Amino acid sequence: MALKKSDLYRSLWQSCDELRGGMDASQYKDYILTLLFVKYVTDKARSDPRNLLTVPAGGSFEEMEKLRGKKEIGDGINKIVAKLAAANDLHNVIDLADFSDEEKLGKGKAMQDRLSKLVGIFADLDFRRSRAEGDDLLGDAYEYLMRHFATESGKSKGQFYTPAEVSRVIAKIVGVGAATKQDQTVYDPTCGSGSLLIKVADETPRGVSIYGQEKDVSTYALAWMNVILHGIPDAELFKGDTLTEPQLTEGDRLRTFDFAVANPPFSYKSWSNGLENEYGRFEYGRPPEKNGDYAFLLHILKSLKGKGKAAVILPHGVLFRGGAEGRIRRELVRRGFVKGIVGLPPNLFYGTGIPACIVVLDKENAAGRAGVFMVDASRGFVKDGAKNRLRSQDIHKIVDVFNRQLDVDRYSRMVPLAEIQSEANEYNLNIPRYIDSSEPEDIQDLRAHLHGGIPDRDIEALGLYWDAFPSLRGALFKQRGDGYSDLAVDSAKIQETILGSPEFEDFAAGVEGEVGKWFEAHRKDLLAIDENTKPAELIEALGEDLLVRFEKRPLLDKYALYEQLLSYWHETMHDDVYLIMHSGWLEASRPRKAIKDKDRKLDEDPDLVISVKKAKNKFKMDLIPPELVVARYLTACKEGVERLEDEVDKAARTIEDFIEEHSGEDSLLAGAMEEGRVTKPLASSRLKEAKHEAALKEVEVLEYMVSLFRLESQANKNLREARSNLDIATLEKYGELSSDEIKDLVLQDKWVAVIERRIKEVLTSLLLQLVDRILQLIQRYGRTLDEMEAEFAQLNDQVSDQLERFNL
Predict the structure, then answer these.
(1) Are strands 236-239 and 209-214 parallel, antiparallel or unpaired?
(2) Rounded to whole angstroms, how far apart are CA atoms 303 and 305?
């Protein structure tokens, strides 16, 4: 039985603990990723005779497995990696990590055990069918590890990795797509680990020719491994400083490309050190000596073909700084090279916490460009540990709005060149100059404070709700006719009035019905999930259709609903689809023994525990949780358990009440108390003493107390037996389920039920926001100045009366 994908990666990451100690994340990533690479290449060679990489004799992962437990394991791994590197011209790419380094890995037995465990962990992975099935197990594993390595490496060493969410945005707005040809080219002059290039390639069904350059040697090695692991071994990557020694040249000119993407180092101070040949890059101005942001941007612009397009991550300063940068910016905008700018949230990147932007360049039709399209996406993110992260809804909204050039209030607009060139702006591209994304000021109304009433202006500001529920405003407010309204219902009944209105019920039913239609439209494809399914295409079809269906529904934000689907996909559905693909519906649904593996630090919490005599059999149900089987097929048993739970609770309450009734120092239960508690052993012991002492009243009370404990004990015993019987019946039921029943349980009781509930929660949350806003307005304007003055006068009179009474 395959592990869930998420559990597999979590186990893999936890296994990195085997290498921690003498190394930080920036060092042990080289060891982990080297083993991952060797394992992949070995598996691929076994399963695909057309594999472009050669696995020589003595250069496979199987040879590493033979070294487990042996003293010479470190040196042996080095030799295996060296043979694989030599056979594929990957010297100084996959052989940078020294597996015999005693300072990092320990000496003698410590190194032997550490490396043996690590090889054993990778032995459990199987990449033979990774990409053939359209499920990029390997690519996802690499992405997972790289993200965690970047997180742990800190600011100074985490810059090799561009967050996958930002990479996806860039790949989707740079201009590649279904029409991109395989012989078209994409270039990243500061390619890091290669993630940006790979994300661009993922957006092109037929592929695209990849080119990149990276200055750091170890990061260059990561990029090479990354493109190979993602099935792009024909990528062309080069070492060296892009600005001072560009490798992609044609004579004395830079080579040009159809597309370019980049996340260059922010504000690189020594960019010009050793610069000899400028290659005509600075025709629009020379960047400042101590800031290389525009040096990279101009290099990329010069590297584009006549219709070339680029998307570059840069700090916000490039949008507004003056001097040399201001002059360059002016020339780029005047010539129409700047197509758009996307402002990103702060603290997304691993190398810095400052906010950044994406500058989109486009040479095609540059002369006729009449404006710059700006997006302020700075407020769309979620906290994720110490960093911020773009959600699926944030990514999709940015991409939709940018590619369709949509004007969205307080979010995006096409800014005319005349406005940018105006005397007030002078080619300053700082986004807040053109888009005010701040929340509108909540204005206090002095007249309402003085005379009461809720300003109609504040009520009209809730127009999205009145558009969705046209008669609800009239049900909640009575207009005075002077620009103010009064509440038409008791404030305690506002929520009831809203949630109980026929319009809300019809609206909620319509949403539920639309979700049902949406899922039915994809039921056939979901039922057909098998080893040939492409998960990325499946979730894309589901997500895009959901967005279309809720495009024009009032009140609801289609992207918020999309987020519910995508978050559930990442949490659960993707794992489910992975299991079904690799094991089939029947096998994936079968209970399996819970794993307890000390070496891999994987100790699973069981979903079901069956006790047989003194042994406990612990089971995991990966695809179908036990509660779904119980709810569908074993309701009578479940109700019986619930009745017994009520009996146990009732027995416990009866005991508590009786003890409370007879508590106290002189009570008849005092002799059975210890630290204020009465237990069955204490009560039984004192009962024997009381009988011997012939304390009849105490005996009577204690006998009743003991009988209550017996009743509670019996109730608990009955409950344990009933639960055990239910667990056994549940386990047996799994073996009786047909393929159709399994599919219906997963689709209807698991997937649809959760997505429907989450979407309903979005709607309910919106309505509760309306309730909160109305209550806020009532609290603000509910008491007029006259009423407060009258109350003050009354309180003042009461104080005066009290003072007179005491002759003060």
Answers:
(1) parallel
(2) 7
- For residue 122, what is the enclosing H or E element? helix 109-123
What is the C-alpha separation between 765 and 314, in angstroms, rounded? Answer: 37
- The length of the chain, given as a count of residues: 808
Q: How many CB atoms are located within 10 Å of the residue 483 CB? A: 13
The predicted pLDDT at position 675 comes to 75
In one-letter notation, the amino acid at residue 576 is D
* Each residue's pLDDT tens digit, 226-241: 888 888 888 999 999 9
Kindly report, residue by residue over 189-233, the tens digit of the pLDDT: 999 889 899 999 999 988 899 999 999 888 898 889 888 888 888
Q: Which are the contacts of 776, defined by CB distance < 8 A and separation ≥ 6? A: none
Rounded to 5°, angle at Cα 690 from 687 and 692: 110
Cα gap 334→338, rounded to integer Å = 9
Distance CA 532, CA 523 (A): 17
User: What is the full DSSP assignment across 767-805?
Assistant: HHHHHHHHHHHHHHHSS-HHHHHHHHHHHHHHHHHHHHH
Per-residue confidence (pLDDT) for residue 183, from 0 to 100: 93
CB 393 within 8 A of CB 562: yes
Element (H, E) at 467: helix 463-468
* 3-class secondary structure per residue, 301-369: HHCEEEEEEEEEEEEHHHHCCCHHHHHHHHHHHHCCCEEEEEECCCCCCCCCCCCEEEEEEECCCHHHC
Residue 368, judged by CB atoms within 10 A of its CB (0-12, 13-18, 19+), counts as: exposed
The type of residue at 416 is: P
CB atoms within 10 A of CB 723: 16
Measuring CA to CA, which residue among 308, 304, 297, 364 is closest to residue 331?
Answer: 297
CA-nearest of 208, 207, 205 to 537 is: 205
Total Cβ atoms within 10 A of residue 307 = 12
Query: Which tokens go with 342?
Result: 């996307």
Q: Are 641 and 722 in contact (CB under 8 A)?
A: yes
The H or E element containing residue 507 is helix 502-527
The H or E element spanning position 734 is: helix 696-736
Q: Tokens representing 606?
A: 């069981």
The pLDDT tens digits for 702-727 are: 999 999 999 999 999 999 999 999 99
Q: In whole angstroms, how large is the CA radius of gyration of the chain? A: 34
Q: What is the DSSP string of 591-657?
A: -EEPPEETTTTEEPPPSEEEEETTEEEEEE-SSS-HHHHHHHH-HHHHHHHHHHHHHHHHHHHHHHH
- pTM for the structure as a whole: 0.87
pLDDT one-digit tens code per residue, 595-633: 776 655 567 789 999 987 778 899 999 999 999 999 999
In angstroms, rounded to a whole number, what is the distance separating the alpha carbons of residues 775 and 768? 10
Cα(287)–Cα(326) distance, integer angstroms: 10
DSSP-assigned states of every residue in 412-447: EEEEEHHHHHSTTTTT---GGGT---SPPP----HH
Residues 6+ apart with CB under 8 A from 394: 165, 377, 380, 381, 559
Using the predicted structure, report yes or no on whether residue 98 has a pLDDT greater than 80: yes
Contact assessment for residue 682 and residue 673, using Cβ atoms and an 8 Å cutoff? yes
Are 284 and 298 in contact by the 8 Å Cβ rule? The answer is yes
Q: Is the CB of residue 670 less than 8 Å from the CB of residue 664?
A: yes
pLDDT at 153: 61
